[in-house]
Specification:
Blueprint lengths: L18 H15 L3 E3 H8 L3 H13 L3 E4 L2 E4 L4 H11 L1 H16 L2 E8 L2 E8 L14 E3 L4 H7 L4 H13 L17 H14 L2 E4 L6 E9 L5 E10 L5 H25 L13 H13 L5 H12 L9 H8 L3 H13 L3 E4 L2 E4 L8 H4 L4 H16 L2 E8 L2 E8 L14 E3 L4 H7 L4 H10 L13 H14 L2 E4 L6 E9 L5 E10 L5 H26 L9
Antiparallel strand pairs: 1-3, 2-3, 4-5, 4-9, 5-6, 7-8, 8-9, 10-11, 12-13, 12-17, 13-14, 15-16, 16-17
Helix pairs in contact: 1-3, 1-11, 4-11, 5-9, 10-11, 11-12, 11-13, 12-13, 15-19
This protein binds P-hydroxybenzoic acid (PHB).
P-hydroxybenzoic acid (PHB) binds next to helix 6, strand 8 and strand 9.
Length: 556
């Protein structure tokens, strides 16, 4: 494989560009294309960077929480999704149109997506997928070549001579589509057919992709126009040859797709265009990078951390940012912010229109697609492992299933007296700390019927079997924020649990530490284990909230 270039082919690097930022981005791109994980030695080979540079870049990215280092392996971490979230939030499409896309998927009972153009390709910014045996494997952030997709064909109706020239060059230099790692490479289909399809799309105003992208897949796409008459995005419905023909897809769905696109256009028109944004002033980001520099010395590349911070300055209110606004939002000097913006613009992650800067969809190429299919179990795993290592007892994460708790992630220790439970195990919720932490968070209307149906059997000498006792215990859990259960499930077993909350504050899971009752007194458990447990829950929640901002994060 050719080394991942730190620069755009054929474009001269501006003298102000920040080299460490370019290198850090090259590392993130390579990890993304490798679906999220690589050995350090492979990163060194693929990027052409010196090993010492790869080490410092990955250490810096680990410090920002964007990757995890596990021995010699680097893995993208959910916090990195804050970069793509900044783009998605600033582009406002998922926020304004996502609900309608989801309703349409429900109505048509097929997957529906929104895509935007990125060079000669398209990127998905929203997906409403139906759970089917043959379901869509494209993810938010994936880049697909224009010529093999319905949305790309529509975007190409707006291409000028320059875009066609770039497209022909790309086809000549990468005939098998290796630049699109989310698709299997394919021998070159004829180019002139694409140009014919683009002509037809211009005349029709819609496009059907009949298995261009892959055998069996059908897609029908229509444009969603913006204020100025350009394409804000393309709306597609995706089906399969087992359910439709290309022609049937158009006959069944085109009128409803056109109606939905018109409704989306009205929604975009009704939303006042965001004016220049008064980005909130915050020196926190810059002072954080400075503190990391003092602590880690030359191993920490401050200009890389600062440059990525600039991306997170965009977002919330959807507006373009001036250089001054970026400097104010990040706490960086104007000179540092300017050089970071110049670098990001050079690499295609930022566009500038006069003084206004905006993020481009290419920001999603920084890890979004591989991370967007994460699960709560995967998010929790490294944090449970770190917790178990710190306190030398096993740690677990569980969810409520009816009136049971089910273990979905677990880190055991090597103690001889290990508590022997595996992922998938279920216990009655009322007799476990994991269960009580979850029951205590249920609205009264759900808890009552659940306890009505649960049989409170004595499982060990101390099991609470009276409804009133249990309810009083749950109130304490709710007031104190933790559940401690002592020899109620099994003789000699003590455990303590806290809830893990989603973005709305609902307890979606709980984590606990289980130990032999002789290993710590109850006071020691509260003094030593509880703070560690709370910190771990906070770490899991922070990643969960970032990952769940624009994607669904299933439990496992
Ligand atoms: C396409 O093949 O054109 C296509 C695939 C997936 C989508 C939309 C369009 O979500």
């Amino acid at each position: 494989m050719a080394p991942t270039s730190t620069s755009q082919p054929g474009v001269e690097t501006p003298p102000e560009a920040v080299t460490p930022l370019m290198r850090g981005i090259a590392v993130l791109r390579r990890l993304t294309d490798a679906d999220g994980s690589l050995a350090l030695s492979d990163l060194e080979r693929d990027t052409g960077l010196a090993r010492s540079t790869v080490d410092r870049v990955t250490l810096t990215l680990a410090r920002t929480g964007y990757v995890r280092l596990d021995g010699k392996v680097v893995t993208l971490a959910p916090r990195l999704m804050e970069l793509g979230n900044a783009y998605l939030s600033s582009a406002r499409l998922p926020g304004l149109l996502g609900g309608r896309v989801d309703d349409l998927a429900e109505e048509l009972d097929e997957s529906v997506s929104l895509a935007v153009p990125d060079g000669g390709g398209v990127r998905f910014v929203h997906q409403a997928t139906r759970r089917r045996a043959m379901s869509l494997r494209f993810r938010i952030g994936d880049l697909l070549p224009a010529e093999r997709t319905a949305p790309g064909t529509l975007f190409a109706t707006r291409w000028g001579a320059e875009e066609w020239r770039t497209w022909r060059e790309r086809r000549a230099s990468d005939p098998d589509g290796e630049g699109f790692p989310s698709l299997p490479p394919r021998p070159r289909p004829a180019d002139d057919l694409f140009e014919e399809r683009v002509e037809a799309a211009r005349a029709d105003g819609w496009v059907v992709d009949d298995q261009l992208i892959e055998p069996g897949l059908l897609a029908l796409a229509v444009p969603v126009r913006d204020h100025a008459g350009g394409f804000a995005c393309v709306l597609s419905v995706v089906s399969h040859t087992s359910r439709h023909t290309g022609r049937g897809l158009r006959e069944d769905f085109l009128p409803r797709m056109l109606d939905a696109a018109s409704a989306m256009e009205r929604r975009l028109r009704d939303e006042p265009p965001a004016g220049p944004s008064p980005a909130p002033a915050s020196g926190a980001l810059a002072s954080w990078t400075a503190a990391s520099k003092r602590e880690l010395g030359r191993e920490f590349i401050e200009s890389l951390a600062r440059g990525l911070t600039v991306i997170t300055a965009f977002g919330e209110n959807g507006a373009a940012l001036t250089l001054s606004a970026v400097a104010r939002a990040t706490g960086l000097s104007r000179a540092s912010a300017r050089r970071a913006l110049i670098t990001l613009e050079h690499l295609g992650y930022v566009t500038a229109d006069g003084r206004d800067h905006r993020l481009t969809p290419r920001v999603l190429a920084l890890g979004y697609a591989p991370l967007s299919r994460t699960t709560l179990a995967r998010i929790a795993d490294p944090h449970l492992a770190a917790l178990a290592a710190r306190i030398q007892d096993s740690a677990s994460l569980a969810v409520l299933v009816d009136d049971s708790v089910q273990y979905v992630a677990r880190a055991a220790t090597h103690r001889i007296m290990n508590v022997d439970i595996t992922v998938g195990t279920r216990f009655p919720a009322y007799a476990t700390s994991l269960g009580r932490a979850l029951l205590a968070g249920l609205p009264a209307g759900e808890l009552g019927p659940l306890l009505d149906n649960a049989e409170l059997r004595p499982l060990a000498p101390h099991t609470l079997t009276h409804r009133t006792e249990l309810e009083a215990a749950l109130e304490r859990v709710s007031a104190e924020g933790y559940a401690l259960v002592d020899e109620e499930l099994e003789v000699g077993l003590r455990s303590i649990a806290v809830p893990v909350r989603d973005r709305e504050g609902a307890a979606v899971a709980s984590i606990n530490v289980a130990m032999h009752s002789s290993s710590r007194t109850i006071d020691e458990c509260l003094e030593q284990v509880l703070p560690e447990l709370r910190r771990t829950a906070g770490d899991i929640e922070s990643e969960l909230h970032t990952a769940a901002r624009f994607t669904e994060v299933p439990v496992m």
